[in-house]
Structures are given as C-alpha cells and as structure tokens.
Design brief:
Elements: E1 15-17, H1 20-28, E2 35-39, E3 46-50, E4 62-67, E5 70-74, E6 79-83, H2 91-116
Parallel strand pairs: 1-3
Antiparallel strand pairs: 2-3, 4-5, 5-6
Amino acid sequence: MTFTHKFDKIMKKYIFVLNAINVMDKLLSSKRVEGVLYMDEDTGRLTFKAYNRMRPKGQRDRLIKKLPWGWVKESMERVKVHASFPKDYGTATVMGLLEEHTRDAKNALIDHELDLIEFC
C-alpha cells in the first residue's frame, strides 16, 4: 500500500536573514521577532530583515546639586527642580520647606553659573 500525498515534491526555500545572530538570540529566548520578508532585487534572494525596536538613548540629565528634599538637574533644553516631602507634615510645614527648597535651588543655580565663568 502506497500513500500519495499532495506534498510529495516539497519545494525548499532558503531565507537570507540579516542580523542573524541577534534574531536567533531573540528566538532562542522565546521572544517575538518582527520584521519584513522581501525579495532582494540585487541578489534575487528571499530576505528577512528584523525591525530595530530599540529606542535611541538620549543624553542623561546632569545633576547640578542634590538638595535635602530633592535635586536640581540640567538637561539639553531645561533646568529641572524636584521636591518631595512626606505626607505626615502639615501644610504650613510643607510650604515653609518648599520656600527653603526653592531658595536652595536658586543658590545652586547661581553657584553652577559661577563655576562656568572663567575669571582671568
């Protein structure tokens, strides 16, 4: 008894994988790999190109001064001041600490500017 199957003559296709090492690492760690499968015009080969989903890392904010209740940082476009107070302090206490924190932040910015100036 012989079995005849539709797929007796299976055509094998080879796929050229760009960045094969990175793609195989993701596949072996059970991650999904998204990309595009296309026929390369130059070589005529079936090619898979994985999408690069890595977000470009920007420049980190530079710490100007660490304050008792937060910090002052400088980015490429902004000066950032952060303050955080415990909830168990009353409103009047937090307002006083906030004024003190703002004064310390202003002084830190002044010191930072003076450090940037070169005196002859």
